[in-house]
Amino acid sequence: MKNKILIIEDNENERLLYKEELEKEGYEVLTASSGKEGLSFIEKEKLDLIILDLRMPEMDGLEVLGKILSKRKNLPVIIYTSYSQYRNNFLSWAADAYIIKSSDMVELKNKIKEMLGS
Amino acid sequence: MNYKNVITFILAGGKGERLYPLTKDRAKPAVPFGGTYRIIDFSLSNAVNSGFKRIYILTQYKSFSLQRHIREGWNILSRELGEFIEVVPAQQRISEDWYLGTADAIFQNLYILEREKPEYVLILSGDHVYKMDYTKMLNFHIQNKADLTISVFEVNKEEASRFGVLKVDNEYRVIDFVEKPQIPFTLPENPSISLISMGIYIFNTEILVKRLIEDAKKIYSSHDFGKDVIPSMIKRDRMFAYRFIEEDKRESRYWRDIGTIEAYYNANMELLEINPILNLYDENWPIMTYKPQSPPAKIVFLGRNIEILNSLISDGCIISGSSIYNSVISPSVKIEKGSEIFDSIIMNNVYIGENCKIKRTIIDKNVIIPNNSVIGYNIEEDKKKFFVTETGIVVIPRESFV
């Protein structure tokens, strides 16, 4: 069975790009354009991993992260952001990995493989 | 030393079910104690006297009374100098639950640590009575380059099973920790003495955050420092036990966990001894509280067979022609002629009519006791009307109708 990944990302182009790239890697990919939408998936879907943007309008990624934790304690989360400064934010420590966005997505893909053991 | 790099959390969220009915309308730390105090005044006074003046009090159940007490009585620090006492109710900012345990209470306030970025975090319980200088503990923590320091109290092995018990090596490094063990660990040098945790912790902030997040992700955790977080740190982190040095400098150290009505009653009664083990009169370590404006206590119509002895009589009381032995009388209590009070705790604004006999009774605030009442002499009769503990202490809840 394919591992199911949820991408929470407000930028539509990036969202589609990540979805396509990760589907090529053989994952089933769901997308959400806001934290609120993403959280609704956690209740409905049996997810294996979440990829989370930090800077989003309305609920930001760190807030979403806290809510994910209170809904599914052991669901792995990778923060995927253009900004490095949140690394020192204690709230971001609740994520399992913190990866800076890059055009080739290699680091992200490797981390997903490592975490899902595939 | 710069104490601005320390944030103090006082955990004041416990329901205090074993202190019922004193906790019927208030959180445990807000229960009146020793006439004019509330239990939380001890932890707060210790923190302020130690110079740790950046304090968050974490509350959840029945926090109104506590909040009012802090607002009215503890408005003594200076924001301009970076000092504060903030009452923080459970806000469901991270989780949608109330605080699940002591560790979860801090975890849910992670954003405070993120904002303040202190170097050290001092965690206290709001329901213990003792006098302690936390700077000595912090110095010990720093000297040992510890990740976590736990303040410990020595008890006989037989009494230790109710507490978190530590196993230490000769340097007092913690090598094991078990909450409420059947067979408690004992000191390396003395097999009849155990070290129990006083629920007072100093953490390096980063280690605290890491361990709290780990714990928050565990499904089978009660999210409690004693049961979950500290055991998970064994063999990984540098933990030390700090032997409590109290500010009264007596040989027998004083620390009371006010967990039950009996413990509450006994701790109050201990204040009445001629040389009480807990000294409230030390100007170098004042215990502060909220005191309303009220006139001095007044005692009138003393006559034959009327005596007032071994008792604390607070401001605003009028005792007219009545005897009081071994009792704690809170502010603005009125006792009419011919009444006798023995071994009792009478809280604020209680009125006791004429010719009453009251023994081993706790009367909570604003209760009116009618003339000729007899309470505490016939336990079976009292049980029909009042709450009575296993050892026969009668408790009359606040504002109840007698």
How would the blueprint of this fold be written?
The complex is a heterodimer of chains A (118) and B (402).
Chain A: E1 4-8, H1 12-24, E2 28-32, H2 35-44, E3 49-52, H3 61-71, E4 77-81, E5 97-100, H4 106-116
Parallel strand pairs in A: 1-2, 1-3, 3-4, 4-5
Chain B: E1 6-11, E2 32-33, E3 37-38, H1 40-49, E4 54-59, H2 64-73, E5 84-89, H3 102-107, H4 110-116, E6 120-125, E7 128-130, H5 134-143, E8 148-156, E9 164-168, E10 174-179, E11 193-204, H6 205-216, H7 225-233, E12 239-243, E13 255-257, H8 261-270, E14 298-300, E15 308-309, E16 312-313, E17 318-320, E18 323-325, E19 328-329, E20 334-335, E21 340-342, E22 345-346, E23 351-352, E24 357-359, E25 361-363, E26 368-369, E27 374-375, H9 379-385, E28 387-388, E29 394-396
Parallel strand pairs in B: 1-4, 1-6, 4-5, 8-12, 14-17, 15-18, 16-19, 17-20, 18-21, 19-22, 20-23, 21-24, 22-25, 23-26, 24-27, 25-29
Antiparallel strand pairs in B: 2-3, 6-11, 7-13, 8-11, 9-10, 9-11, 28-29
What key phrases describe this protein's structure?
heterodimer; A: 118 residues; alpha/beta; five-stranded parallel sheet; 4 helices; 5 strands; 38% helix; B: 402 residues; nine-stranded mixed sheet; six-stranded mixed sheet; 9 helices; 27% strand; globular
Describe, in plain words, how this protein is organized in 3D.
The complex is a heterodimer of chains A (118) and B (402). Chain A is built from four helices and five strands; from the N terminus they run βαβαβαββα. Chain A has helices at 12-24, 35-44, 61-71, 106-116; strands at 4-8, 28-32, 49-52, 77-81, 97-100. The longest helix of chain A has 13 residues, at 12-24. The termini of chain B are far apart. Classes of the chains: A alpha/beta (118), B alpha/beta (402).
